[in-house]
Every structure is written in structure tokens, then in C-alpha cells.
Amino acid sequence: MKIAQIAPLAESCPPRLYGGTERIVSYLTEELVRQGHEVALFASGDSRTSAELVKCSDIALRLNPAVRDHVPYHVAMLDRVRALADRFDVLHFHIDMLHFPLIRDFADRTVTTLHGRLDLPDLKPFYAAFPDIPLVSISEDQRKPMPPVNWVGTVHHGLPRDLLPFKARPEGGYLAFLGRISPEKGPDLAIEIAARTGLPLKMAAKVDKVDEAYWREKIEPMVAATPNVSYIGEIGDAEKAEFLGNAAALLFPIDWPEPFGLVMIEAMACGTPVIAMRRGSVPEVIEHGVSGFIVNSLDEAVAAVGRLGDIHRSAVRAAFERRFTVERMAEDYVKIYRSLPGVGTHPPRLYIAGGEAGRQAFA
Predict the structure, then answer these.
(1) Has residue 66 been placed in a domain?
(2) What is the pLDDT of residue 297?
(3) Domain Glycosyltransferase subfamily 4-like N-terminal spans what residues (predicted)?
(4) Is residue 112 part of a domain?
(5) Residue 105 to residue 126: CA distance in whole angstroms
(6) Residue of 108, 68, 113, 73 whose CA lies nearest to 92
(7) Distance spanning both ends of the chain, measured CA to CA
(8) Looking at the whole model, is its pTM more than 0.70?
């Protein structure tokens, strides 16, 4: 199949540091190429891919200090997508909603994966206005707040098997927190768990501008006041294997409807069990007593730390290989692509932006 993957431009594919959506787009793109599909990736110019790269910004927008508004770059990218739409059997969008009005005439050969939370009140009237656009959820729980829409599948995320090696015997003996410093991610609860269990806690996390006050006023003082807690900042893929692989457990004490939680399966790939609050997708991802513990309170989380000896790290890795590989993710998406009513039934309609300029090569 000829497939277009349309990624957000905030981060490169794959991202250098934090960036869950762009990371998944990269894994999916590379696996589709490996399986023999012709793939074009619409992404930032510093992306690395074996697909045909359509450069839609010079570098990832988050890394460009001259960029203050991401919307103009995405709108320009979407005009280019429409100009080249006739080249593809399927167009797969990962950019939330900006493209919906532009794809109505070929929506039946598109799919849009929704990567974020869907419980915000402003989203309901928007999705109610576009009930025909084919949508994919990344967990069943993610769907709960939505009005009736055209769900065509749920596809859990997947990782390359060799991305994060299995670590049978962790060398660190610490608890790990990986992600963002924000109230919904529960870094305060992670610190409390560490304080009550006495185990070291290493926090590898980014602080977005919107959360700087939360970090400065709440989390940073808690870190300073808790001797067994250390904050090591944002890390990239190169450090992630060692950080997660040497941890006794990953703490995932979220307090929001997490759509998926990529870090959970990253830990599982290393054989590291996950202690997670029962929120959002957690019950779909973690098998209680097999790949970790699902808890309902701080007390239960503290007790779960004491039960980590009941979890076999080989079983955690086996659960990852059984359920969360990139091969499975790509196969699930290809099944959805082939099921779309516009795939293979009629030639796609042509739209050319800027006359002949729209026909030029991708790069």
C-alpha cells in the first residue's frame, strides 16, 4: 500500500527527548516500510526515517526559538498533504483535528489516531460536527467522553522488540518516575511513595512552561526535603534503557484519564514492573500481578512496593512481547487501512495547491 503518515511538527520523528506521539509515528512508519509498504512521512526536517520524508519545517518546532505559534506551520503542511493526496491509498493523521475540514472529499481513505485526552468540554461539539471522519482510539477508556463518532478501531501502542533490552537483574534498586512534571502525572505521589518506603526515587522528567510554577512551588521543595529522591531532568532514548532497566519498579501514580501511557510499555520491555493508579488506560495495559500492580490509593501503592518480589521480570517482558510490539501495532493499522471504504474502490480526487508547484517532489 501507498501510505502517508502525517505527524505533529512539535518534535522530530523520532524525538530527541520527550514526545510520545512523534515516537509512535516513527515506530509505525519504520515498521510499515519494513513490511514492504511505500510510506511517506510528513514531519519536521530533522526527522530520521527510512520512508520518504516530506519536510514540513526546518527543525522540530519546540527546538526553534524563533517559532511562537505552531498553527501556521501545520496549516501549511496540510495544504501540502492535500496537494499530494492523490499519491496515496491511505492517509494517516496524528495531528488531532486541524485537518478535518480539508479532507471531507477523501475522508473515506483516511484515518486519524487521537493521541490525547478527550474529556475536555470544548471537544464534544467539534467531534459532533464531524461524525463521519474515521477515528482510531489508543485505548477503549479514551473513548468514554466522546459523542457518537466513526470509530474504526482501537490500536494499543507498540515498540520495536530490540529498542529496550530486557534486564533480568536490575542493578539500581531504585524506583523510577519518567515523563512530565505536571499535576496529572502524580510526581508528588511518587515522592510520597518513596518517602514512605525508604527506597531511592529517581525522577527523569521534563518541565513544560505551563508547569513551571507547579515545579517551583510544590515539587522542587518536596525533592529538596526528601533525601532519597533525586531529580535528574529530561532524558532521551539513549539513557532510557539503563534508567528503566535498572529500576526495581516504575511508578505511574497518575491522576487523570491517561489515554495510553507509553512509559508503561517501555518499562515492561525492560522487564521492569509498573505500579500504577487505576485511571484511564491503566487496566488495559497492566496485567495485575503479572506486569505490575494496579492500585487505588497511596497506601496500596506503598504496599505494592513491598510485593515487588512476587513479580517475575521475565513474565513482564513476556507480557510486552505478547501484546505491545510494533509488529502487532502495524498489523492492526494495516487491517484498518484495508477496511476503509475508499481504499481500492475509486481513484482519489486531486487537489493541487499552487498549480505545478504542488506536483514537485516531496523533498
Answers:
(1) yes
(2) 97
(3) 18-119
(4) yes
(5) 18
(6) 113
(7) 21
(8) yes
pLDDT for 196-250, tens place per residue? 999 999 999 999 889 999 999 999 999 999 999 999 998 877 799 999 999 999 9
Contacts of 291 (CB under 8 A, 6+ apart): 268, 273, 274, 311, 315, 316, 319, 320
Burial environment of residue 327 by CB neighbours within 10 A (0 to 12, 13 to 18, 19 or more): middle
If you search the block for the grid coordinates 487496566, which residue do you land on?
283
Whether 29 and 110 share a structural domain:
yes
SS3 43: strand
Retrieve residue 325's grid coordinates.
Answer: 510490539
> What whole-number distance in Å separates Cα of residue 306 and Cα of residue 189?
16
Q: Which three cell numbers stand for residue 61?
A: 518546532
Question: With 80 as the cut, is the pLDDT of residue 352 above it?
Answer: no
Tell me what the mean pLDDT of segment 147-168 comes to. 96
Which phi and psi angles does 295 have, rounded to 5°?
Answer: -125, 160
Amino acid at 137: S
Strands (E), 107-253: 110-113, 134-137, 150-154, 174-180, 201-206, 229-231, 247-252
> How many domains, in total, are found in the chain?
2
Whichever domain contains 73, its CATH number is: 3.40.50.2000
Pair 239, 273 in one domain: yes
Strand pairing of 201-206 and 229-231? parallel
**Alpha-carbon torsion (157, 163, 169, 174), positive or negative:** negative
Helices (H), the chain: 20-34, 71-83, 123-129, 187-197, 212-214, 220-225, 237-245, 262-270, 282-285, 298-305, 313-323, 326-339
Expressed as residue numbers, the domain containing 272 is: 174-322
CB proximity list for 206: less than 8 A, separation 6 or greater: 17, 18, 179, 180, 181, 233, 234
Look up residue 17 and give its three cell numbers. Answer: 527527548
| Secondary structure class of 232 (helix, strand, coil) | coil
Among 95, 84, 88, 112, which Cα is nearest to 37's? 88
| 8 and 133 part of one domain | yes
> 195 — phi, psi (to 5°)?
-60, -40
